[in-house]
Amino acid sequence: MLIALVMAPLALGLALLAGGRALGRRSFAVAAVAPFAVLVAAAASAGRVLDERPLTASLGWVPALDLSIDLRLDGFSLLFVLLVAGIGTLVQLYAGRYFGAEREGLHRLAGLLLVFTAAMLGLVSAASLLTLFVAWELTSITSYLLIGWTDGDPKARASALQALLTTGLGGLAMLGGFVLIGQAAGTYDLAALAAHPPTGTVVEVGLLLVLVGAFTKSAQFPFSAWLPGAMVAPTPVSAFLHSATMVKAGVYLIARLAPIFAEQGAWRPVVLAVGSLTMLTGGWRALRQYDLKRILAYGTVSQLGFLVVLFGAGFPEATAAGVVVLLAHALFKAGLFLVVGVVDHQAHTRDIRRLGRYGPGWAGPMAAAVICGASMAGLPPLIGFLGKESAYDAFLHGDIAGGGVVLAVLVGGSVLTFAYTARLLAGAFRPGVWTEGIAEDAEAAIDPPPAPRWSFWAPAGLLATLTVLLGLVPGLASKLVDVAAHDLDPSGEHVHLALWHGLNPALALSALTVGLGVLLVVGGAVLARLQQRLPDTAWGEQAFLGAMRGLNRLADRSTGLFQSGSLPVYIGVILLTAVVVPGWALLQAPMPDLPPLVSGPGDWAAAALLVGGGIAAVVVKHRMAAVLCLGAVGYGMALVFALQGAPDLALTQVCVDTIGAVVFVLVLRHLPTWFADVPSRVSQASRLAVSAAVGVFVFAFILVAVGVRVDPTISTEFIARAYEEGGGRNVVNVVLVDIRGFDTMGEITVLAVAAMGVYALARLSRRDRRASTPGASR
Amino acid sequence: MSLVLALCTALLFSLGTWLLLQRRLTRIIIGLGLIGHGANLLLLLSGGRRGVAPFIGQIGERTPADPMPQALALTAIVIAFGVTAFLLALAYRSWQLTGDDLVEDDLEDRRIAATRSTASDEEVADQRELSAAEAALESSTGGAAPLEEAE
Question: Does CATH number 1.10.287 belong to domain B2-50+66-98?
């Protein structure tokens, strides 16, 4: 059943991609069926999972490599599956309203969203690191395709590429980390890893690599630049991938591994430092945005930092708080994105300096936004408040090094969150709060946009309702949160969510947060001046752009260096490599004995032909003469063959040389009689050097090769068996047609291919000739 | 195996390499021919012993030559012939198109090699546009087009 859970959206998604064009905007309604079915199925199996009996499934993948797709649905996975499937359903329905019917490629968008859903479901229910990695990469690729869905827009292409490169490189680091950890532990199974955690330096290095992957995916400092850029994607995509689900993949991985590895190496300091920095810088940068979606994007970065701190700390109370914040964040952030999409759709702008005047019929979406925003700001009685309370509480009582600093960061980050929430809500729904840079004319603020249909904002309304409901009646989610936290870290006590915990330090911190937040909002003008004066901390973007430029320049330079376009250069490089590398090995060989000067009287005659013909072939400038010199070398070869006891070779050589000379003449009669000198980029000196190096190498090679023979030659056997088994007296012939028959088969094939090539080239010329004489073809 | 023939082999390789590094297709073909001869000689010499032809029934008490390198060399001779014929056909075609058998540099490769800056890189151009749009959004001068156009 678990397999079907993942495969159903995948199958429907691929089907839509392949054949959904005719459906147009209705693709979204069709697509919504799959995540909804998953939601129902997951809810149906919730009873069993919450009973602490996880579902497992395994599908053979590459049995020879012992690879299989292993899935396991425990409480934490179930929470994610419910979120992914639930928000996935809402987003599909919402997208059906968001896009105009005439828009092209909507089936592609719906299909890709489903493929992404499937990948995400696979990721959160993966039982082994390798399955997780495959799903992880699939989410990166679908995210790339979804951000770049409007492929005609250079901004969309650029940010899609930025997202892919950032998360892809992180994924690569993560794979390295998985392999290190998996090899050290001897297993890639998550449950087995938790039962017997491996230790050692290798594992610590592996963990850091895995963290790089998680940080890039969850847009942690300094890899957060891609996430605000990804906001060029259509709002339904942003709401689904880049706030509620995919960016939480890194958080998910950290949550899975932290209880196992938090005590090891640099895990805890790194995670806490990175998460804290992300939470603060994200919140700070959200406060200088004027675009609603970008306020939300930086807010998401900040909240992801929050989650990384909570899950990465790796002690049970923080983990439990993380689960609550995760649930709260998915609900309110998706809701806010959906409302922003509604505003954008109706008003055609997201600029907070232009928005703010609304006619009747906007009460619903406004209420939804205010509720979700209040949850984000951590106000009671909403689920976001519960999350923040439990986070404060965890670090008030948590016993880890630097816990106090982290607590201060959480409070500071939450104050910033309060402030940017206010900026978002006031910016969207109140006119004239921000006027910087807008020309002093009446056109700055837009006319009240038309009210949206109820079905357009209903998904946001549903999420807002859940936010209130879970806040007022925490018992609804209590069991799920408890089991999820317990499945992550079984050492923790059971969690009971409640709105009211009495007067305690956490409540005091909440009050402090709200107080400071109100101050920050009231002192907004001071803050704005401060922000203007401070330099923008956008160096992540700059670094990415610089890296892109550098990479391209490196590619150009190395291409220019190695791909110079000159054939002599290529051949020279190849030959030098062929000489230097084995030549190095030759130098290690023992010094061979020199053979006798000559082995018989004929050697001198053959050598005279070879040397004389060879040198002449190089020196003469007359084309035909050079070819005849080559022929002389061939006859010299025939003489050597005859002397060495190889009459077959001698005969063949004579035949080939004779026919070859004829072929040469056929071609050469067209070409100029003399070789003219051609200027070349390769100097004569370097040609000479390469030629000499090749000659020296070959000479040394012969001497060494002859000297190092240890085993008797294989051909003693050939001679012994040639007659009985091959039925021939000429051993060379038997070798060719029988013993090494396949070799000869290959040789014939080469000849056939060469013959076809020659024929084709010759025919080509005939066609040219016919085409060049007009009327000849008729 | 003798020193003289070993030196001949080395010389054939050297001369062939020299021709191979030229720009005339005819000379390259001749160079390949010389290297082919050198390679056959190398095969035969590394076989080690010189002897009578390996014909069964005629060897008697004498040492036969090693038939294995001979078989290899025979294959090599024939393939070298095929390659030569094909290259000659190419030279013929080259003559038809250009009136000569000169091997020219690849112009596109030369252009890339000469490029000193990443001039027309589309990813970087896209990225610049995105950066500019983002900068415009964050600056207080405002009025920039939104990153994504809604319906």
Answer: yes
